[in-house]
Amino acid sequence: MSDVVVIGAGMSGIACARALQAKGVTVRLIDNGRSIGGRMSTRRAAVFGKTITFDHGAQYLDQSEDAAAIAALGKGAVDAWYLGDGASRIVGVPGMAALPRALANGLDITLNTRVTTVRARCGLFQIETDAGKTTASHAVITVPAPQLAPILGETHPLVQRASNVVMRPCLTLMAAFNRDTPAPFVTRRDANALLTWIAKNDTKPGRSTAYQTWVAQANLDWSAANIDADRSETKRQMVDLLCSELGVVSAKLCHMGLQVWRYGLVETSLGNSFLKDGMLWVGGDWCHGAKVQDAWRSGLDIAANVLHTFDTSLSAKA
């Protein structure tokens, strides 16, 4: 049995587990995915025998003090990405996924395991997964807010208290072109366009330059309208939009992929670092906002509150 089980190995879960383990707490992280990091992710693809990558989730960390503090913890796995206009951002190298991997080094992590229910029983939490049961005295859940209900039940008080959080889908296109394809910009953000964010991914440090690679994110309304549409048709439409923005023909396209983030962006946040019910905590980026540091802050604040309960129980026994 672990002292604490953290469900969700994104940035919030990693921050929480690191802080707890540093204080001697036995922590186990469980995640449904094949890798850690949540939306701090990197997709690999093979194009004519060459491996290329796309940062198809979080694009960068900004240059804020909080973001810089996170990057400092992952020294060796980050670098500066220069946008061509004098501005720069912090990115993971050789991909965004490198940063959460560095930050999670030494943690006890179980991947490819879906948590189905979390229930309090006799002073412990019984955590049911598709691989069996585990127990813990404390439980932390850092999944997107809309995914709390299937785990805790629709009537759970934490589910009710998180019901005002709004997370929107985001459709992300990954496209590779021949190297000689015109590249009119490094990044472009336009809140009024169907593709609100376009970035030349191969300009980030440590990326393959075998092909010209682009990441494009659709706006929230278009993403919501097409979230369950035919994936092939969605890719085709987004490729056409990207080619139009770049001023190129689709004949130069060498690869295309689509990532569907059903809970991709936080539109309405909770306004607090976490929610708590007994020895159960829930949190994530949806507590404060859409940035990486928002997720990290939630995880750290949860860990501090968890540690306070251990300190209180030890004082009571003394």
What share of the residues lie within helices? 25-40%
Number of helices: 8
Order of helices and strands: EHEEEHEEHEEEEHHEEEEHHEEEH
What is the CATH superfamily of the largest domain? Answer: FAD/NAD(P)-binding domain
What's the rounded overall pLDDT mean? 95
CATH class term of the largest domain: Alpha Beta
Instruction: List the domain count as a whole number.
Output: 2
Name the beta content range: 25-35%
Q: Structural class, please?
A: alpha+beta
> How would a crystallographer describe the biggest sheet?
8 strands, mixed
* CA-based gyration radius: 21 Å
Q: Which regions contain 5 or more consecutive residues with pLDDT less than 50?
A: 314-318
User: Can you tell me the overall shape?
Assistant: globular
Instruction: Give me the count of strands.
Output: 17
- The CATH topology of the largest domain is FAD/NAD(P)-binding domain
Second CATH tier, the architecture of the largest domain? 3-Layer(bba) Sandwich
Termini gap: 23 Å
Describe the fold and architecture.
This protein folds into two domains: 2-37 and 104-165 and 269-317, FAD/NAD(P)-binding domain, CATH 3.50.50.60; 43-63 and 167-267, Polyamine Oxidase, Chain A, domain 2 (Alpha-Beta Complex), CATH 3.90.660. Helix 1 packs parallel to helix 8 (292-317). It starts with a strand and ends with a helix. 27% of the residues lie in helices and 34% in strands. It has 318 residues and is of the alpha+beta class. The longest helix has 26 residues, at 292-317. Strands 1, 2, 7, 8, 9, 10, 16 and 17 form an eight-stranded mixed sheet that branches.
